Description:
The chain is an alpha/beta fold. It is built from seven helices and eleven strands. Ligand LZUJQKHR binds near residues 80, 106, 144 and 197. 1,4-dihydronicotinamide adenine dinucleotide binds next to helix 1. Pathway: Amino-acid biosynthesis; L-lysine biosynthesis via DAP pathway; (S)-tetrahydrodipicolinate from L-aspartate: step 4/4.
Amino acid sequence: MTALRVAVTGAKGRMGAEACRAVEAAEGLELVARVDQDDALETLTEAGTEVVVDFTHPGVVMGNLEFCVRNGIHAVVGTSGFTPDRLDTIRGWLADAPSVGVLIAPNFGIGAVLMMQFAAKAARYYESVEIVELHHPNKVDAPSGTARRTAEMIAEARSAADLPAVPDATTDDPDGARGARVDGIPVHAVRLRGLVAHQEVLLGDAGEMLTIRHDSFDRTSFMPGVVLGVRRVGGAPGLTLGLEHFLDLDPRT
Length: 253
Ligand SMILES: NC(=O)C1=CN([C@@H]2O[C@H](COP(=O)(O)OP(=O)(O)OC[C@H]3O[C@@H](n4cnc5c(N)ncnc54)[C@H](O)[C@@H]3O)[C@@H](O)[C@H]2O)C=CC1
Ligand SMILES: O=C(O)C1=N[C@H](C(=O)O)C[C@H](O)C1
């Protein structure tokens, strides 16, 4: 059987370098190109790339993705910064390339994906919810893509259950101490030396609190998800949002 030809964009970065190692170590995958910011995207087509793994920067990922889709290359995207508008733009490109698959995964950590699923499942039972994401201080964007997507999922679950807005009597907050709001859900971002990627979802109701927490202590934690995405994306044409769609989670639970 011939190996799947995989390239990594952002190959010199923290995640890109780890992804290169994971692809090289994975059976049935061949790393055919390492692309970073000074390299032409044509390197991807010249190398006969079938799947690109992108860990670059929110400011450049859309250009990389458009190139991939227009050239019939499947994409597994870990880069953050995907707003609903951006997702619609990608759907538009994919409409002209119906055989291409794009996976946008806010988080490749299996535990992180489960944490998001558990939080969405719990959301309808609690009056209050807040998200605290904690990352290394070299991270350029806030809130994290994971926190943003978690907030969207929680907001969807609350809306489906007809829950009102989370209670909050704050009227005086000149310094923004109450954090950001994503789809009405409070989100707080911590940047701290020593951390990698962590998130807590705090759910509160009268007399109780449920805390759902996930920690990535090392970037190797993301790699089984990246390799799974690479193996599955070609068989899933169109846009897939979230690794959970490739995890065969039991729909009854
Ligand atoms: N989905 C997930 O599970 C994870 C996602 N991330 C996300 O991945 C992204 C990258 O994170 P890090 O590796 O920590 O950042 P980083 O800054 O270490 O790496 C980014 C790399 O992209 C390169 N780059 C910049 N512009 C480029 C271009 N036009 N073409 C090719 N390469 C280019 C940079 O030179 C750098 O080597 C961030 O958006 C981060 O939030 C990070 C960890 C896990
Ligand atoms: O920049 C990071 O490190 C991470 N970025 C992703 C995000 O923004 O959610 C995933 C993970 O949290 C690590």
